[in-house]
Write a structure and sequence with these properties.
The protein is α+β, with helices and mostly antiparallel strands. It folds into 3 domains: 2-198, Up-down Bundle (Four Helix Bundle (Hemerythrin (Met), subunit A)); 227-294, no CATH class; 335-497, Heat Shock Protein 90, CATH 3.30.565. The chain is built from 13 helices and 7 strands. The protein has helices at 2-6, 9-72, 75-92, 102-130, 134-221, 237-293, 297-313, 317-333, 343-361, 374-377, 386-398, 431-438, 452-463, and strands at 341-342, 366-372, 380-381, 405-414, 417-424, 468-473, 479-486.
Length: 500
């Protein structure tokens, strides 16, 4: 009952409708089932009686045809006799009782046995007639007549028993129909009473909460917010409206309180705004000083170029070449990152980077070689794609290697794909280092500050799909990194052409 009260009005009405519909459906189903059962039994009885009558008539016709043949020896009568004999043989085996009772079954079996004897005696009479044995065919014919009388009596007895049984069942079904009709009448009266009761209860259930809600709404319209929240005892639509009204009154009350407090906060907010303006001016001045303290890249390039010229004038060619490579590396790394470069340009920058490293640490520490197929040289890739990979090979592979390290860059095209392989003979990497490389985490010693995840994302922006990066590494056996990118010729794509 508690669950019923907490249900919504819609659910209650649907449940009541379904219950009443099920009751009426069950009553109508039983009425229909009983009527169909009665009609089927009557139809079966009539069909079976017709078959028995037709069988009895065929037996009489066979006797008449046999008698005429025995008297006149007319072959037409013989053919008629054979015709009825075939009909009887095809019919009597198909006879079945209407009721599965022992008496009916025994009576029907008796009819079948007598029919077999009847046909046998009739055939013997025909054979005796053909043999011109008048005494024998006369005796056989009298047996045929006797069997005919017994068969007709048994058929009539079976029909009478079936009629009696069906009359009894018809009376039972009729009584059941009368009972169902009375039950239907009682149910109609009960449903009518229940419907009136539910209508009255629903009316009271709906109007009382609505009346209280109307009184509370009138009080709120008169600016009386001191009313207590309306009680909610159900879980139907009226309860939802009542809860919403209570929330609305509470919100209006809070709003009035906030309006009162807002006037007290306005003066303090104005003072805070003045303080914020003063702080912003101070921050702008500090930012201006910070910008003024930064070195202009063009000034740095010009300074390095001046150092190169000075080294040449002083016959320090190696120093001049070193400073020129540093300037080239800095100039390349400060290019606009949204503009793609060719693989050849990227490889040349990496060679410059290794020239600086060999100058710093000695040429005998490691070697570097680049092998690029002609078809791949002018494919476009994002700026600073190779340098992070090569730096990983140097820092995590051969930097602390006791023997001479070797880094090989091999690039080639396969149909519409550009494949770049960077391999080294270093000490390999453990799983922790591989995980850090796959993320965008900045590792110590990198000049670009770019990780593999950054390379993959910039490939998606420039080329329309992410770069596939495969890392094969084992401690003590070196590392091989393979980049799989779309092959795009020079001038084919830029970051402004890609919609991300």
């Amino acid at each position: 009952m508690k669950n019923w009260v907490t249900q919504s009005i819609r659910v209650k009405l649907i449940c009541m409708f379904l219950i009443l519909s099920c009751i009426f459906a069950l009553v109508n189903f039983f009425s229909y089932y009983s009527e169909r059962t009665l009609l089927n039994r009557i139809n079966t009885l009539l069909t079976n009686n017709i078959k028995l009558k037709e069988f009895s008539a065929d037996v009489d016709n066979l006797v008449n045809a046999l008698e005429k043949y025995l008297v006149s020896r007319n072959f037409d009568m013989l053919r008629e006799y054979l015709h009825y004999g075939q009909m009887i043989e095809a019919t009597y085996l198909q006879l079945t009782p209407v009721e599965e009772s022992i008496d009916d079954y025994l009576l029907l079996e008796n009819i079948k046995n007598m029919t077999r004897s009847f046909l046998h005696q009739a055939d013997k009479a025909v054979q005796a007639k053909r043999a011109r044995n008048s005494e024998e065919y006369h005796q056989n014919f009298m047996e045929v007549v006797r069997y005919n009388t017994n068969i007709k009596w048994a058929i009539d007895r079976l029909i009478i028993k079936q009629l009696e049984e069906n009359s009894r069942q018809y009376l039972q079904i009729s009584n059941r129909l009368i009972y169902l009709q009375r039950l239907s009448l009682y149910l109609i009266v009960a449903v009518l009473i229940i419907s009136i009761t539910v209508a009255i209860w629903t009316s009271l259930h709906l109007t009382n909460p609505l009346r209280k809600l109307a009184e509370a709404a009138e009080a709120v319209s008169n600016r009386d917010f001191s009313i207590a929240p309306l009680p909610v005892s159900t879980n139907d639509e009226i309860a939802v409206v009542t809860e919403a009204f209570n929330d609305m009154v509470a919100s209006i009350t809070r709003l009035f309180e906030e309006i009162k407090n807002q006037s007290n906060l306005e003066n303090r907010l104005k003072e805070q705004e003045l303080q914020n303006l003063t702080m912003k001016n101070t921050l702008r001045e500090a930012e201006l000083h910070s910008l003024q303290s930064q070195i202009n890249p063009h000034f740095l390039f010009n300074t390095l170029n001046a150092g190169v010229q000075l080294a040449i004038m002083e016959d320090a060619e190696k120093t001049g070449e070193f400073m020129d490579k540093v300037a080239s590396l800095l100039r390349y790394n400060l290019r606009r990152i949204e503009k793609p470069v060719t693989l050849q340009e990227e490889a040349k920058n990496v060679e410059t980077y290794f020239f600086i490293l060999r100058t710093r640490y000695g040429a005998e520490r490691f070697s570097f070689s680049v092998q690029i197929e002609a078809e791949a040289a002018f494919c476009q890739i994002p700026l600073l794609t190779l340098q992070p990979i090569v730096e990983n090979a140097l820092i995590h592979g051969i930097e602390n290697l006791e023997t001479k390290g070797e880094i090989i860059v091999n690039a080639y095209r396969r149909e519409n794909r550009l494949l770049i392989e960077v391999s080294d003979n270093g000490r390999g990497m453990d799983e922790t280092t591989l995980t850090r490389l796959r993320t965008n985490e900045k590792l110590p010693g990198h000049t670009t500050g770019l990780g593999l995840a950054n390379v993959r994302e910039r490939s998606r922006l420039f080329l329309g799909e992410s770069c596939l990066i495969k890392i094969q590494s084992a401690q003590g056996k070196g590392t091989k990194v393979t980049l799989d990118l779309p092959a795009v010729k020079e001038g084919g794509v830029g970051i402004e052409d890609i919609s991300c």
